[in-house]
Amino acid sequence: MTQPHKSATDTNTILRNQLITLLQKSDAHQPLDAAIKNLPANLRGVKPENLPYSIWQLIDHIRVVQWDILEFSRNADYQSPPWPEGYWTKQVEPSDNSAWQQALDQIQQDRDAFIALLADPQRDLFQPFAHGDGQNLLREALLIADHTAYHVGEIIIIRRLLNAWPG
C-alpha cells in the first residue's frame, strides 16, 4: 500500500511541529528544568576542580546564546555581543536568588518567543535571512536545541561531581 503524497504545506507543518517539540521537550536527554530541579542554591556557583564553569555560568551562557539567536532570527539590524566575552559571565555565582530566577525566566520567555517564530506559517524555515551568512530559521532552531542540550549535559555532570544529582 502506498502512502499518500504529502504536500509541501503538510511537510512544513510536520517539520515545524517537530522543531517545537524538540525545543519544548526532551526525548533523548534531560531537559534544562530537570537538570536544575532541586539544585541547592549554595551549589549554583561551585566550580569543580579542573572544570572551567559553574552551573550559574552555564545557565547564564544558555540564556545569552538563546537570546542572541532569537534576536538574530527576528531583527536584521541586531548586532551580536563580542565573542567570547559577551557570551560568558565572569561571575561564578548569581548575585542573588532573583538573578537566578530572572535568568531562568528569560530562557523560558525567549524560547517561547522563538517557538512563536517557528509556528508562524509566514516564516519560511528554509529561506536564508537577508542578513548573515546563509542562516535560516531551521538552522537557528537546531542550533538552540543542540547548544542547550550540550550545556544541560555539562550541568548534570557538575551536579554528579558535586554529589547533587538524583539517582
Tell me what you see in this structure:
Helix 1 packs antiparallel against helix 4 (97-119). The chain has a single domain (8-161), classed as Four Helix Bundle (Hemerythrin (Met), subunit A) (Up-down Bundle). It has 167 residues and is mostly helical. It is globular, with a radius of gyration of 18 Å. It has 5 helices and no strands. Helices cover 54% and strands 0% of the residues.
Structural class: mainly alpha
Q: What's the CATH topology name?
A: Four Helix Bundle (Hemerythrin (Met), subunit A)
Main sheet specs: none
**CATH level 1 class label:** Mainly Alpha
Instruction: Give the proportion of residues in helices.
Output: 40-55%
Radius of gyration: 18 Å
Mean pLDDT: 94
Number of helices: 5
**Which word captures the global form?**
globular
Order of helices and strands: HHHHH
Distance between termini? 47 Å
**What is the CATH H-level superfamily?**
dinb family like domain
How many strands in all?
0
CATH architectural type: Up-down Bundle
Number of domains: 1
| Low-pLDDT residue spans | none
Indicate the proportion of strand residues: under 5%
